[in-house]
Amino acid sequence: MLRIAVPNKGSLSGPAAEMLHEAGYQQRRESKELRIVDPVNDVEFFYLRPRDIAIYVASGQLDIGITGRDLLIDSDAYAEEILPLGFARSTFRFATKPGTVGDDLADLKGKTVATSYEGIVAKHLSDNGIDASVVHLDGAVETAIQLGVAQVIADVVETGTSLRNAGLEVVGEPIMKSEAVVIRRIGADAEEAAESKVQQFLRRLQGVLVARTYVMMDYDCRVEQLEKAVALTPGLESPTVSPLHNEGWVAVRAMVPAKEAQRIMDDLYDIGARAILTTAIHACRL
Ligand SMILES: Nc1ncnc2c1ncn2[C@@H]1O[C@H](COP(=O)(O)OP(=O)(O)OP(=O)(O)O)[C@@H](O)[C@H]1O
Ligand SMILES: O=P(O)(O)OC[C@H]1O[C@H](OP(=O)(O)OP(=O)(O)O)[C@H](O)[C@@H]1O
Ligand SMILES: [Mg+2]
């Protein structure tokens, strides 16, 4: 049975459960449940603190886990990212009170930096040869500056609202970009036993990602316009082209990126395509 770690709380928890549900896996009904078995899919889910997931996966007791890239790197656990999942996107940045620290990383020399991600920050400072102190706090680190615990913070930034509300602004370049990722123990793919089940799990999640980012597009066009139309909708392999009852016309079907669907529909219309439709994809295996 495949054993999978899933975040039990925080920003990752809801979207992770939603994605697993869309991929056809049974999920817990109550937020207090710590473990469930999905007998149909032969999978056991463990609901763990997001910060602990890389440690469990690195220990080899669990086959794979869903966590944040920033949490994986911060943990320094013996685990690696195998599939980015596109949700819980954020950047990890330094921030401070406007006018108190210069915009250069070197300006952090001698300062105290408060963060919940001590591993990422200490490594980033030492990689860049900056001698600064790091204070570990569990959360709500924005308040550390106001209360005099640090002059600088390093934290997750998504919209920037938390920083603005605390009267802070980012300094320097982002330390890293993060999103939810699937992780596994480094070198675990050499162990054949769970490999085919892991690959099946990844294919299911990839199917959800594709279904979320692509739509199916159908349209009719004149044979003379087919090459131009197909250039606009190349599909993943190649579009399906079928004859229409009316001679000189064909029906075309191809997957297109959802974000570009409206522009592609306009361009197809301009070259004479008609009956242009898009439909949602609910699941797929590429
Ligand atoms: N506002 C946000 N937008 C996007 N991702 C976020 C945000 N806040 C945290 N994350 C991501 O969530 C993960 C941290 O999860 P964790 O549950 O520890 O923190 P949280 O979501 O802030 O929850 P809490 O602090 O309530 O426990 C990290 O990968 C982080 O990048
Ligand atoms: O840029 P924003 O959109 O404001 O998002 C970033 C904030 O969200 C998270 O905090 P959370 O609310 O989880 O509180 P925490 O500090 O206790 O983790 C994170 O720690 C930042 O503070
Ligand atoms: Mg948080």
UniProtKB/TrEMBL annotation:
InterPro entries in alphabetical order: ATP-PRT_HisG_long, ATP_PRibTrfase_cat, ATP_PRibTrfase_HisG, HisG_C, N-reg_PII-like_a/b, N-reg_PII/ATP_PRibTrfase_C
Matching Gene3D superfamilies: 3.30.70.120, Periplasmic binding protein-like II
An example Gene Ontology molecular-function term: glycosyltransferase activity
Enzyme Commission code(s) on record: 2.4.2.17
Class in the EC hierarchy, top level: transferase
Domain of life the protein comes from: Bacteria
Pfam families: HisG (PF01634), HisG_C (PF08029)
Alphabetical UniProt keywords: Amino-acid biosynthesis, ATP-binding, Cytoplasm, Glycosyltransferase, Histidine biosynthesis, Magnesium, Metal-binding, Nucleotide-binding, Transferase
Family membership: Belongs to the ATP phosphoribosyltransferase family. Long subfamily.
Function text: Catalyzes the condensation of ATP and 5-phosphoribose 1-diphosphate to form N'-(5'-phosphoribosyl)-ATP (PR-ATP). Has a crucial role in the pathway because the rate of histidine biosynthesis seems to be controlled primarily by regulation of HisG enzymatic activity.
Protein's recorded name: ATP phosphoribosyltransferase
